[in-house]
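Sharing a chain and its predicted structure for anyone who wants a worked example. Both blocks are below, sequence first, C-alpha cells second.
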Amino acid sequence: MANSSKNMKIIRDSRRKKQQLYRRRKIVAGVLVACLFVVICLLVYSLFFKDKGRPQSSSSSSSSSSSSSSESSSSSSSSSSSLSSSSSSSSSQTSSSSSSTVTTGVNTEFFDNTAFIGDSRVEGLSYYCGSDIPGASFFTSRGIMLDGVTSKKVITTTGGQQLTMIEALQQKQYRKVYMMFGVNELGWPYENVFQQHYETVINAVKQAQPNAEIYVMGIFPVTAAKSASGSIYTNEKIDRFDARVKAAASACGVNYISVRPALVDASGVLPAAASSDGVHLNAQYCYKWLNYLSNHS
C-alpha cells in the first residue's frame, strides 16, 4: 500500500511538472508571436507608409484651385464642379500665412488656366504658392504612384464625387499642364517598368488635354543627409529614375523640364535649408521652383 501511495505521488508530481512546463512553453510562444507581429508591422510601415511623400505642414492629401472664380484657395475646381482634397480641403488662409514672410515675385498671369498634377511634392507647391496663382488648378495626392494615376479615385468634388486624377483633369481644357511623379516610385525594382508607367500617364494626360502644352518636370534631388540615410531615397537612384522621366517625355513628344537649377546647391543636391525632412520643399524653395517655371517654360 505504501508503494502504491508513493507511486501515485510520483505520478502526480510528474503531471504537475509537465503542466508547469506546458504553461511556460505557452507563455514563451505567446511572447515570440507578439514580437513577430511587431516586427511585421514595422516592416510594413517602412515599406509602404514611411516617407511616402508627405508635404510639410500640409493638411490635405490632394487639392485643386478654381479656374472659374478668383478664389485664392489652394483647392481647385473644374468648369462644372469645384474639386477639393481627397481627404480634406486645403485652407488658403493657412497657405497664405505660411508664405507671407517669403518674397514671392510670382508672375501670376503666367499660370492662368494651368493645371498641376503630381504627388506630395507638387501638393507642397499648392499649399505654399496656390493663393498667389488663383488661375491654376492642382490635382495632387500624398503617396500617389504612377500606377494609380488613372485608376485610384483620389480627387473628391464638392458634391462628393470621387474622381481619378485624369478624370479630374478632363473637367475643363487647360492652356498648360505641369506634371511630376517619381519620388514615391524609387522603391520599384525595375526602372524600365517605371518608364513604361510614366509613358502611360503622359499619354493619358495628352488624351485628356489635347490642346494643352504639357511639361513633365524632372525629379529633383533630396538632401545629402536624406540620401545617406537609406537605400531607397538616394540621389544616385533619383538620377537614374530622372533619366527615365526624360526618356518617357521624349518618347511621348512632350516637354521635359528640370527644375534642379533653381533648387540644388553647389554639390548638386538639395540644401539642408530647403527642407525639414530632406524630401519636401519649404515655402521659400517652393517659390524658387514656381518662379523657375515661369522663366523657363
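Comments welcome. The longest helix spans residues 2-48.
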